[in-house]
Design a protein that fits this description.
Radius of gyration: 28 Å
CATH class of the largest domain: Alpha Beta
Number of strands: 19
Structural class: alpha/beta
Distance between the termini: 34 Å
Strand content: 15-25%
CATH superfamily of the largest domain: P-loop containing nucleotide triphosphate hydrolases
Helix content: 25-40%
Number of helices: 18
Strand order of the largest sheet: 3-2-4-5-1-6-7-8-9
Oligomer: single chain
CATH topology of the largest domain: Rossmann fold
Length: 453
């Protein structure tokens, strides 16, 4: 897995680096881009006026998810009193923990950021710091919270990595090398395939990419939100989008769609047969500098080229008619996730697309279903020679023919049921000058539920 999955799985995360190197920015990036902006309680010993200047600097990076998060009630800020250094000498360190608990429970937070944790306790207060942290960990685990700690080394203060060594699940060091901001996974309890990442600003906001881009294509899991009034579309997308590569969320209301945009889901499918084409949905992405890619599906059977250009210019990623071709959808997704997605070359399929052996035909079905390749299956009767059909079929399709009972079984790759029934079969009949009596037509998602073999 990659760092994004490590952040999702980890509960106690330390962000380590020199002052003003981007520890807080990275914490906010992780919370908004990978955890989808849970309600978060932020605690810092730095004075509010100074922190507000820092937040303003972060807003100027123009990462849409972070900016919307900072301006929302999801992000609650708490600051230490100026007299904190003297107060902590008078009271038990657990008083500070009580205040943190109160802030978390008042806001309903699911995540905590303790910013510049080194300032919490000076070096001579190690015992107090240890006691505080032990109780904090118990509380975080009991409430199932995420805990982010930002830390810069300082001889005056407690060495946090030493203090939390036994409880830490993920440590990320940030440094600048040759004007590039590098994040380095120094420690993780979960196996992460790539340890070095580039943390950079792009037109779509902040981005974290592994040093080895091949690993990104192989292992990254994309968040997908599906908003569809069409059951067929929802069912087909869930089939094509393999759970090893995509994490799918669903929502039926328009508020769910807007929510998904501001949560930063990487791919969002939108289809509502009751709504006319509305560019305002695309503009939300552009105006708020959000990373989501909207694949907008119209309630029409065609898309005008002008509408498609306008949609992309205004912030949508792609515009399709409701009768879109499966191959067009696959090509669009490949532009986002890479060529390894939906790759027939990686499947062990026979070169011969004609067989009289039922077991071989079933093995083809099995390979296609395991690879989540979309197809339509047709069973029928042919009064003629099956080999004549093969001569006019696409090389990518498959045919089983039983000479005794004249039964034929077709697999038409990347073809919808209606197209297979009303277009492909009539064309075959015309070219071979024979009738094919259709008995059954089903698509791949249905075969998973009701196997043919």
């Amino acid at each position: 897995m990659l760092l994004d999955a490590g952040i999702e799985k980890g509960q106690i995360i330390l962000i380590y680096g020199e002052p003003r190197i981007g520890k807080l920015v990275f914490s906010l990036f992780a919370i908004t881009h990978y955890l989808h902006s849970p309600r978060t309680a932020f605690f810092s010993p730095i004075m509010p006026d100074l922190m507000e200047k820092r937040f303003q600097g972060i807003r100027e990076i123009k990462d849409g998810l972070i900016n919307n998060f900072l301006n929302s009630p999801q992000f609650a800020k708490f600051f230490f009193k100026e007299e904190y250094p003297s107060l902590k000498k008078q009271y038990s360190p657990l008083y500070l923990l009580d205040d943190i608990k109160k802030g978390v429970e008042t806001t309903g937070a699911k995540a905590i950021i303790l910013h510049r944790f080194e300032y919490f306790f000076e070096i001579q207060e190690f015992d107090d710091a240890e006691k505080f942290f032990q109780e904090l960990i118990r509380y975080v685990q009991l409430k199932n919270l995420k805990l982010f700690l930002t830390f810069s080394p300082n001889d005056r203060f407690v060495n946090v990595p030493e203090l939390i060594d036994n409880s830490l699940e993920l440590r990320i060091d940030i440094e600048v090398i040759e004007d590039k901001r590098i994040t380095n996974v120094k420690y993780t309890v979960h196996p992460i395939a790539e340890k070095i990442y580039f943390f950079k600003r792009t037109e779509r906001g902040l981005e974290l990419t592994p040093r080895n881009k091949e690993i990104l294509e192989e292992q990254k899991r994309y968040s997908v939100s599906i908003h569809s009034s069409d059951r067929w579309l929802e069912k087909s997308l869930k089939y094509i989008l393999h759970p090893d590569k995509f994490q799918i969320y669903e929502g039926n209301k328009i508020t769910d769609f807007i929510h998904a945009l501001f949560k930063g889901y990487e791919i969002i499918f939108f289809y509502d047969e009751s709504r006319e084409f509305d560019l305002d949905y695309c503009r939300i992405v552009k105006e708020n500098n959000l990373p989501s890619r909207i694949i907008y599906i119209l309630n029409k059977d065609f898309v005008r080229s002008g509408d498609r250009i306008n949609a992309v210019d205004e912030g949508c990623y792609e515009l399709f008619p409701r009768t879109f071709g499966i191959e067009d959808l696959v090509l669009t997704l490949k532009r986002i996730v890479g060529d390894e997605f939906y790759n027939l070359r990686n499947l062990k399929l026979p070169h011969q697309n004609f067989t009289t052996e039922w077991e071989q035909f079933c093995s083809i079905l099995k390979v296609l279903l395991e690879g989540r390749i979309f197809f339509s299956y047709i069973k029928g009767t042919l009064n003629g020679d099956g080999e004549q059909v093969v001569g006019v079929m696409r090389r990518s399709d498959y045919l089983h023919w039983n000479k005794k009972d004249k039964k034929v079984h077709f697999i038409f790759l990347n073809v919808r049921e209606t197209i297979a029934r009303n277009v492909v079969i009539p064309n075959l009949e015309k070219r071979i000058n024979m009738d094919i009596k259709i008995e059954k037509v089903v698509e791949a998602p249905e075969i998973i539920k009701n196997p043919i073999c």
